[in-house]
Write a structure and sequence with these properties.
alpha+beta, 198 residues
Length: 198
């Protein structure tokens, strides 16, 4: 099925390649840049759990629920993080972009903007999605701001949606981009990327 077929997405600054177990050691090095697993409000694997997380994502791909990617810096080939198409609903042509993290040194750069542009372009222009969701914790203020900068609209808040560390309950902010909104959002993302490269 086209929806869960691995695909490589190439931009000017990043390449999104299908996740593979061979990326394991470099992903450990990437997650150690900023010790990202210490963020209590989100789910980022520890170095010790990285291989299990890779396998979880690949198992979800086999079940048709996820299409996971490793994010590479195009020019150096360095691994920057992970992202995924997930909660794939073929019948209703919807999916979520999520389970995303980038090494700390790649944050607040063009990496997220271009990665999202590549993923959204594929979702709307190749997979013919009706809507794409993005979700994040109420306490992940950086992620919420980044999602809103993309042009996504807040659909609502799922209260006490997930259990995080130490039995704390997480509220999840649910955003979406509709197919009709994509042309303007694509134009805005291209504009942002031109500014960042000039």
């Amino acid at each position: 099925m086209q929806w869960i077929e691995p695909v490589t997405l190439v931009g000017q600054n990043v390449i999104l390649k299908p996740l593979d177990e061979s990326h394991h050691l470099e992903l450990i090095e990437a997650v150690q840049d900023g010790e990202l697993w210490k963020l209590w409000y989100t789910f980022i694997p520890t170095p010790e759990r990285m291989l299990a997380e890779i396998q979880r994502r690949l198992d979800s791909q086999q079940n048709g629920q996820m299409l996971p990617f490793t994010v590479f810096e195009r020019h150096s080939g360095k691994i920057l993080g992970m992202t995924s198409f997930m909660n794939i609903d073929v019948a209703h042509r919807r999916l979520e972009i999520g389970s995303t993290w980038y090494r700390q040194s790649a944050q607040r750069s063009a990496v997220n903007t271009e990665s999202k542009k590549l993923l959204l372009s594929h979702a709307f222009e190749v997979l013919n999605c009706i809507a794409v969701e993005l979700r994040t914790s109420s306490f992940n203020f950086k992620s919420r701001a980044a999602i809103e900068r993309l042009g996504a609209k807040l659909d609502g808040i799922l209260r006490s949606h997930q259990v995080v560390k130490d039995d704390i309950l997480r509220d999840t902010y649910v955003y979406s981009i509709l197919r009709s909104e994509w042309p303007a959002i694509r134009q805005n993302l291209e504009f942002k990327l031109q500014l960042s490269s000039s």
